[in-house]
Amino acid sequence: MFTLFFVEELPTTVGAHYEFSNEDANHAIRVLRMQAGAEFMLSDGNGAWSQVKAVDVSKKSMQVEVIASGFQEALPTTITVVQALPKGDRSKEAIELLTEAGVDRIVPWAATRSIGKGTDKFAVTAREASKQSRRFRIPEVTPLATTAQICEAIKLSDLAIAFHESATHKLSDQISSHNVQHLLIIIGPEGGITDEELAAFEAAGAKVALMGRPILRSAHAGIAAVSAVSALLKVW
User: Fold this and answer.
1) Which end of the chain, N or C, is less packed with Cβ atoms under 10 Å?
2) CB atoms within 10 A of CB 106
């Protein structure tokens, strides 16, 4: 698998030469020690990609030749994950794991029991994790959302599932159709979703489901939920 980098203006004409000179190029030269002849991928982060070959490498930039180009269509199900802010570095870990899981949108949530603060670097984290997981589509990371805003998002989704340890229904019992275009998954904080928040989500149309017997950390629950739901909906 070729290394992936992102650029604002993607060269797509096969045979054309292009100057690769952003921070990713600097990383490729200084850290990865790429030399002339090296092949790698470039993407605009919105599905378009080009396979390129380094023709000439200088200290901070390189000339590349486009070998092939294409476009990766989005999956039929758009996955949004509402993630209550975990504490410290676990927020970054949560963004990384959700990106690796293939979600389309990440919504940091200021839940009543959230401990984490600040979302300034979440978009950067998602971008870097996209490179690591070879994604041609960088997930959108929205501004911090309130419970009321989450309720509005629930109403606009085809299926919304809030995971809670007190749920009486298994996840598999809460999915009755595979025809889901807009999926919303809600992950609570370490202290759990409050009764008031859960009631608001249910009133807005969300289903409440149990994620197995073990209680996962908030930062880890998202990738488990996305994996399970994606399999049940036949997205994977």
Assistant:
1) N
2) 25
DSSP state of 202: H
For the record, the structure tokens of 169 come out as 């229904």
Nearest alpha carbon to residue 50 among 15, 99, 100: 15
Contacts (Cβ under 8 Å, ≥6 apart) of 187: 81, 82, 83, 84, 94, 163, 218, 221, 222, 225
Which residues lie closer than 8 Å to 190 by C-beta, 6 or more apart? 86, 87, 113, 115, 217, 218
pLDDT for the residue numbered 89: 82
Q: What are the C-alpha distances in Å from 95 to residues 54, 100, 140, 168?
A: 31, 9, 11, 28
The count of other CB atoms within 10 Å of the CB of residue 217 is: 12
Query: What are the pLDDT digits (tens) for 48-99?
Result: 999 999 999 998 899 999 999 999 999 999 999 999 988 778 889 999 999 9
Angle at 157 between CA 186 and CA 147, to 5 degrees: 45
All domains in the chain, ordered by first residue: 4-71 (2.40.240.20), 78-232 (3.40.1280.10)
- For the entire predicted model, the pTM comes to 0.90
In contact, 185 and 81? CB cutoff 8 Å: yes
- SS3 for 32? coil
